[in-house]
Fold this protein.
Amino acid sequence: MTTPELLAASAKYLANTYARFPVVLVRGTGMRLWDSEGKEYLDFAGGIAVDALGHCHPRMVEAIRSQAERLIHVSNLYHIEPQIRLAKLLCEHSFADRAFFCNSGAEANEAAIKLARKYAKDHWSTDRVEIIAAQHAFHGRTLATLTATGKYTQGFEPLVPGFKHVPYNDLPAVARALDSRTCAVLVEPIQGEGGVVVPDEGYLPGLRRLCDEAGVLLIFDEVQTGMGRTGRLFAYEHSGIAPDIMTLAKALAGGVPIGAMLAKETVATSFTPGTHATTFGGTPFVTAVALAVVETILVDDLAGNAGRVGKILVDRLAALQGGRSVVTGIRGKGLLVGVDLSVPARPVVSACLERGLLVLSAGDTVLRFAPPLIASEADVDQALAILTPVLRDAAA
Ligand code: PLP
């Protein structure tokens, strides 16, 4: 099919759930992608914080190839070697003792919500069902995670009962919201979709203290911030405290669909055979790929690289501020960076795409960068060489 034919078929046959840009991406290697017309792009979108190792990384390709020849799927009624090894690796590198595998970030958060409610019923009382979440959060699109997200809900009512929203980065608001019906507090350590909002240093430790005092669970959604993106393997590590439950997805298998919910032993034991499950959760195929991805992130210290290169990116972006610039603020940690603009972000994203740079927006006026964790200083220079004139034009 030609590119116009593909675009026409896309418009005709796909559910209209994405405002897609008019390109068809067909091939990638490292930090680079090519479209169906042979045009090259530098990828600072990273599949929205998914392509941690870049495109078609040799270790990932080899893991896919060898596992495809060995075993792709068996039921979780049997033990699965790469799944066991992945759970062990994640637990050994985090606060957690047990892992549950699923297929997406939303499902990981569903599992966390269900586990929190089940734990509350097992240990406290049947009335403790409520989850406190933050405004401008993003936790997924299933009904419960959409309710936790608190927006994009119109037309999908009735929503799931038992969620309360408070402003992000506001400890007194959480303290006021906690009551005898609360079973957990659910937040992102940095809000990604909400505009790369980095909370004050005391926020996450403050949440831990409030949850401990109230005797409720603390859940961190690290679907976007996990797997090295912020300069540590998990974003909670910057805060000096740990949650009781953490959810992962996106970069965990570098682009092969997976989700995970990790929990402390005392909490995890509320899941027993028959209480929660999913057919494709942790198949031999996906967990073998995830194992190769996590091992590469650890061995190549890609979290360290994200911290170093992210700082260079922020410094270069900061130089664009001032005067008549449309850049009004820069936030982020590691290679999750948001730029506040005084103009709409989407035309800037489109202009970058035309010039061969993929970037993201988050909300109406925030430009977001979530490149592969293999990005180098030279990649940042090339991205800024494209972005700088685009921002200058946007100010005109
Ligand atoms: N949680 C966070 C923090 C996210 O950023 C996302 C997706 O952007 C999700 C959950 C939902 O993940 P998925 O799209 O894999 O269901």
Notes: The pocket of pyridoxal-5'-phosphate is lined by residues 104-106, 109, 138-140, 188, 192-193, 221, 223-224, 249 (CB under 6 Å). The chain has 13 helices and 15 strands. The first strand starts at residue 25 and ends at 29. The mean pLDDT is 97.
